[in-house]
Amino acid sequence: MESTRERDEVFSKAVKAGKRTYFFDVKETKSGDRYLTITESKRKFSNDDGSFTYEKHKIFLYREDHEKFVKALQGVISFIETGVEPVFEDENEENNFSSGSFDDFSFDIKE
Q: Lowest CB count within 10 Å: 5, 23, 60, 77, which one?
């Protein structure tokens, strides 16, 4: 009998970059919907016992967010390479964060 982990993983690509490895894993829900998980794994040395551990960070990217995610990523990479701030024409105002400050955000805390 195959495990749930084997069944829901459809495709995987690992990219080694120095001390980090990035895993791009396409997974599938029971209903057949595919989604992407991106995991950053960083090897860390423990001074306590001389062993290595791995610190992992993961994001999930669902199909309905692919287009906006890719456009934003391409824009940010372009900015890094050129210094020219990208224009995102199709985003509404509430999702359009610029390189400005986030100081104007407030959070209501309910006790």
A: 5
